[in-house]
Amino acid sequence: MKIDWQRTRIFTELDFEQRGKSIGDLRLKHSDNRTPLGYLPIPAGILHGGQGPTVLLTGGLHGDEFEGPVALMKLLRRLDPRRVHGRLIILPALNAPAIREASRVSPLDQGNLNRAFPGDADGGPTAIIAHFVETLLLPLCAAVIDIHSGGKAATFAPCVLAGRDGDGRLSAPNMALAQAFGAPLAWILGHLNDNRSLNAAAARKGVPMIAVELGGGGHVSPEMLLLAERGIDNCLKHLDLLDGEVQAHAPARRIEVRDPRQSVYAPHGGLFEPLFGPGDEVAEGARAGYIHSIEEPERGPTAIEFPTPGVVLARCQRGLVERGELLALIASDFPDQPAPQTGSARQGSPQH
User: Fold this and answer.
1) Domains of the chain by residue range
2) CA 71 to CA 225: how far, in whole Å?
3) DSSP 3-state assignment of 282?
4) pLDDT at 276 over 50
5) Beta 253-256 vs 326-333: how paired, if at all?
6) pLDDT over threshold 80, residue 350
7) Which CATH number fits domain 257-333: 2.30.30.100, 2.40.50.100, 3.80.10.10, 2.30.110.20?
8) CA–CA separation, 315 and 216 (whole Å)
9) Among the four 110, 298, 306, 326, which has the fewest Cβ within 10 Å?
10) What span, in angstroms and rounded, lies between the C-alpha atoms of 90 and 133?
11) Measured between alpha carbons, how far is residue 130 from residues 90, 111, 137, 163 in Å?
12) Is the distance from CB of 24 to CB of 10 less than 8 angstroms?
């Protein structure tokens, strides 16, 4: 199957069928004051070693998440296409306009790319990118790996996200891919998963996929970057695109977000003083932290408590928060998951 370039406003000089290594731009047609007659460049690379499956690797769906772009650019430079049994399509900065502004959303249309699928070929820039990926790229693919972090707003415990579907066709291959990656936590996506995400797009197309959340804070963590690089290599070996044994590691602890109460939000604005970190085990009713009012310094701080027990998937990275801002995301053990050991579940080291 080849890409039908007549169905998109994206064009390129890259030959997706050419053997070897090809690096260039996907060119998104867009007219505004800055580029009235030009195009928006989206960096792309193809490593084609011959007969075999196609795998899509993406990063930068959110423009303030940098581990994925760095890991994928390093992969593109270091990997000899002759080692690849098939084809890798590598898009390290898929939401390139947002990456260039270090912004979660696109500065062109305020679009959140991971909430834009299935997209629209005749929509704004973000919708066009989403449409291109879901409609034209995903049908080519045997698997997808998407690298995220918490960005400027949050820090995640390192985890891999695997969707489960109603008929079970993708559940097993998704979990096998998650286990191969080697993160300590496997977040099983269920009915609360957003149907506008890339994970949901892959499920609609019947393509196995994992997404990964690695740290955050709006910078590149060496530990999370190493975990990303090793995890990607493991997944490519698992998919038989690379020779070699998948690095052995302990089975991931399987978790899920099944209750809207597992999202802890700020009841009002102020300075957030957290008492926990990503990966911590927390109990129902335990103190999560305080919000201090700037306008009323004489007012005592508002105590924040955890409404449910579980493991902290993500913690707010911001010191100054607004009413309604996410302070913590809590996950529960998956129903068939053995009870966790006591103590912290914070395991960010790349040896897992």
Assistant:
1) 5-255, 257-333
2) 6
3) strand
4) yes
5) antiparallel
6) no
7) 2.40.50.100
8) 10
9) 298
10) 12
11) 15, 10, 10, 19
12) no
- Tokens found for residue 27: 């060119």
Q: What count of Cα atoms within 13 Å lies in the side-chain half-sphere of residue 79?
A: 30
Strands 270-274, 320-321: parallel, antiparallel or unpaired by DSSP? antiparallel
Nearest-angstrom CA–CA distance, 306 and 332: 13
Q: How far apart are CA 134 and CA 110, in angstroms?
A: 20
DSSP 260: G
> 5-255 in CATH: which number?
3.40.630.10
Measure CA 106 to chain center.
Answer: 16
Residue 220, pLDDT above cutoff 50: yes
Q: Please determine whether the domains at 5-255 and 257-333 fall in the same fold group of CATH.
A: no
Q: Which residue has the tokens 């804070």?
A: 217
pLDDT at 337: 56
Strand, helix or coil for residue 125: helix
Reduce the secondary structure of 249-306 to three states and give it as a string. Answer: CCCCEEEECCCHHHEEECCCCEEEEECCCCCCEECCCCEEEEEECCCCCCCCCEEEEC
Length of the chain: 352
Q: What is the DSSP letter of 42?
A: E
pLDDT tens for each residue of 77-121 = 999 999 999 999 999 999 999 999 999 999 999 999 999 999 999
